[in-house]
Write a structure and sequence with these properties.
It contains 5 helices and no strands. The chain has a domain of about 60 residues. The chain is mostly helical. The radius of gyration is 22 Å and the shape is elongated.
Length: about 130
């Protein structure tokens, strides 16, 4: 996980923390939606028990198709947003005394940058599937 900005930047540190907390809450909300969809999927088996297996098949197919389409669209959107910013993000590499290797946070920066690019490749592969 990326480190917060240095102690001399309390506003920046608070901003990072607030953003991290907001995203974490959205992911909790997404988890709750997953549980709701799971509950609905479990209830679909009642159609088969009532002799209406075709209804369960159609509903399950629709749910999965719509979920995959929405998820794929979201991931592709996020991938595009961050890939378009890679050059700008790369320019944020810490430099000290005109030497990148001497800059505090240099290894952490490149570890975080590598993590992001690896995730973007992974999202790209998911979009191709």
């Amino acid at each position: 996980m990326a480190q917060d900005p240095p102690a001399q930047e309390p506003h920046a540190r608070d901003s990072v923390r607030d953003t991290r907390e907001r995203v974490a809450q959205h992911l909790v909300d997404l988890h709750h939606l997953h549980i709701a969809l799971l509950t609905d999927a479990r209830m679909m088996k009642a159609f088969s028990f009532d002799g209406r297996a075709l209804a369960e098949i159609e509903l399950a197919s629709e749910m999965l198709e719509q979920y995959l389409a929405a998820s794929s669209a979201f991931l592709e959107n996020m991938r595009g947003r961050f890939e378009s910013r890679l050059d700008l993000l790369r320019r944020g590499e810490p430099i000290a005394n005109a030497n990148r290797d001497d800059a505090p946070g240099h290894p952490e920066f490149w570890l975080a940058f590598s993590r992001l690019t690896a995730l973007l490749r992974r999202v790209g592969h998911l979009a191709e599937a």
